[in-house]
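Hello everyone,

My group is preparing for a crystallization screen and wants a predicted model to guide construct design. The compound we'll soak is NAP. Before spending weeks at the bench, it would help to have a computed complex in hand. I've included the protein sequence and the ligand's SMILES below. Output in structure-token form would be ideal because that's what our pipeline reads.
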Amino acid sequence: MAKVALITGSAVRLGREIAFHLAYSGWDLALHYRSSSKEIFDFEAELKIRYPDQRFHIFQTDLGVKEQTQNLIKQVIDRFGHLDLLVNSASVFEPSSLKETSTDLMIRHMMVNYVSPFILMRDFANIADNGQIINIADARIKNNKSDYLSYSLSKKSLWELTKMAALELAPHFRVNAIAPGAVLTPAGKDQRYLEKVAVNTPMKISSGVNSVLKSIDFIIDNEDLTGQLIYCDGGAHLL
Ligand SMILES: NC(=O)c1ccc[n+]([C@@H]2O[C@H](COP(=O)([O-])OP(=O)(O)OC[C@H]3O[C@@H](n4cnc5c(N)ncnc54)[C@H](OP(=O)(O)O)[C@@H]3O)[C@@H](O)[C@H]2O)c1
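Reply:
Good plan to model first. Here are the tokens for the complex, ready for your pipeline.
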């Protein structure tokens, strides 16, 4: 029986890359999106052509709305019959210092980046007998810079949740995290931005998305690995 993965935010960018990589590795996929409908339907069509023997289904959920998030795991399991891997990748990423952060922005970051992964992890653990969870955090969790205050706090919280969940849910579930540095250009920046960031890391280079994809394989393949965080940031978290 083919294994099933749910990847949140899989229409574009890193979530799409992760989904594409898992499809290549033989997984059936629950493709989650919120607003990128053209991208997700084009992506599903491409996957169905490339991998005609695998199953791909699309699920639309606003992860900022708890009533919607609370239905997602059940919908996926009803559709596929089971779920083996949850990748929490969808996120809000907006700058603002402590003084600039509105309560609404704090709540939005917390809902999408922390509370929704919590809901999905809890529901997965309550419904399935076993499985694994990979939370996409951010190398920013290591520092106390406040230029992305509510984003950074949401990701710090996600890492704390990862460790607590890993302990509670073992030995039936493994729960790990990946903390990328800048692996894709943010809105309004080009490739030179990534090169500039990379030069300022200890390793002076960035292997970009590949480093995240290899880390996902590493986590999946190591059957006793849980409660771990892999930084994919050229060593920037050491600074
Ligand atoms: N890109 C990087 O260099 C980098 C660096 C460090 C960490 N990360 C982490 O890696 C992950 C992916 O990064 P990314 O840059 O690819 O992400 P992104 O472009 O900022 O957003 C990814 C997805 O999040 C979904 N999303 C946003 N708000 C949502 C909501 N309310 N409900 C449901 N989905 C929502 C969007 O779905 P729709 O488009 O369908 O609306 C979008 O496709 C994130 O967790 C991010 O924090 C990325």
